[in-house]
Amino acid sequence: MAMDAIKGVVHIFGNNIDTDQIYPGRYLELTEPQDIAKHAMEGADEAFPSKVKPGDIIVAGKNFGCGSSREHAVITLLAAGVKAVIAKSFARIFYRNAINRGLCVVEIPDLDLSKIQDGLSVSVDVREGRAAFSNGYEARFVPFSDHILEIFEAGGVIPLYKSKTEER
């Protein structure tokens, strides 16, 4: 499956959204994706789990995913159906966890959040490095390498590894 554009409805968040806001630590004992998804972004917006639909996209400010290094934050977003996160910047460990798990994370340092509102739709062209919002605002970013796209297309590093070992 070739990955070119990701399209979805926007949910806006601010700066410094930490992993405890993405997935509060008090739910760490949950293991089933459908149970985990019920608490996605609960620390930043209690209503988010009831608003998010499969394929939606989070747009945020600086330092998204800061805090602990737990992978649960990424697992939670994927379980809730979030297709991508666009942010001005990401915490390094969250960014790598997202790629490893197959969650598209798009860093746009000069993203103008004042031009984006909840409910807009966005089309993210991962090969061209362009995010086009339904209100006409467009932002550019460094396109992903073929290797990173291969990870996303496989659904993460582990499924990619498994598919490569099965080919042998």
TrEMBL record:
GO terms for biological process: L-leucine biosynthetic process. The lineage of its organism: Bacteria, Thermotogati, Synergistota, Synergistia, Synergistales. Transmembrane segments: none annotated. InterPro entries: Aconitase/3IPM_dehydase_swvl, AconitaseA/IPMdHydase_ssu_swvl, IPMI_Swivel, LeuD, LeuD_type2/HacB/DmdB. Keywords: Amino-acid biosynthesis, Branched-chain amino acid biosynthesis, Isomerase, Leucine biosynthesis, Lyase. Pathway: Amino-acid biosynthesis; L-leucine biosynthesis; L-leucine from 3-methyl-2-oxobutanoate: step 2/4. This is 3-isopropylmalate dehydratase small subunit. Belongs to the LeuD family. LeuD type 2 subfamily. GO terms for molecular function: 3-isopropylmalate dehydratase activity; isomerase activity. NCBIfam families: LEUD_arch. Gene3D superfamilies: Aconitase, domain 4 (3.20.19.10). Catalyzes the isomerization between 2-isopropylmalate and 3-isopropylmalate, via the formation of 2-isopropylmaleate. Heterodimer of LeuC and LeuD. SUPFAM superfamilies: LeuD/IlvD-like. Pfam families: Aconitase_C. PANTHER family: 3-ISOPROPYLMALATE DEHYDRATASE SMALL SUBUNIT 1, 3-ISOPROPYLMALATE DEHYDRATASE SMALL SUBUNIT 2-RELATED-RELATED. It catalyses: (2R,3S)-3-isopropylmalate = (2S)-2-isopropylmalate. Its EC number is 4.2.1.33. Residues 38-109 form the Aconitase A/isopropylmalate dehydratase small subunit swivel domain.
